[in-house]
Amino acid sequence: MGPLTEKIMLNALQSLDQKLTEASLKVSLIMGGGGAMILAHHFPKGTTDIDAIPKGQSPEVLDSFVKAVAKELGIEPDWLNPYFSTFAMTLPQDYSSRLIRVFDGIHLTVDALGKEEMLIMKCFAHRSKDIPHARALLKGGVKLELVENRLNELLKKKIPNTQKAIDFLQDLLDEMDGE
Prior knowledge:
By secondary structure, the chain is an alpha/beta fold. The chain has helices spanning 6-22, 33-39, 63-73, 115-125, 131-139, 144-156, 162-177, and strands at 27-32, 50-54, 80-81, 100-104, 108-112.
């Protein structure tokens, strides 16, 4: 199976919404990762999965529905997963004020993280594959002061890998200054 494009992701979310509606189960997801880059921030490439966590529910509540959608659409069984929750502790308290609604179904709503939160998470992941996303966010009008302030708060709280996240951001900014 190839990458998940915007169209495939929206089809999968629509199918998931239909299954949740049939089960009378309402779910709200918060999305990060590549899916958020594509659906909320208009990054033009595909992704391998949608990183999302349900608000107020365990991710396991969705497992059978996610696998049913995968089978129906011929996509990977973990097309929707909670992997980005690893970095959820990096989110500022007011992150919800910057959420972007990317899907509004009958029983499923999906809000993607804002640019600032996406950049913070990309800095914490600090993988080479995150560089194009981080660069796009920086070029796309991210409020850099908010990101830098949050990273400094996390550094003061001694959150592991914060210095690496700051270094990743600084390297990107230095590189972009030279362009």
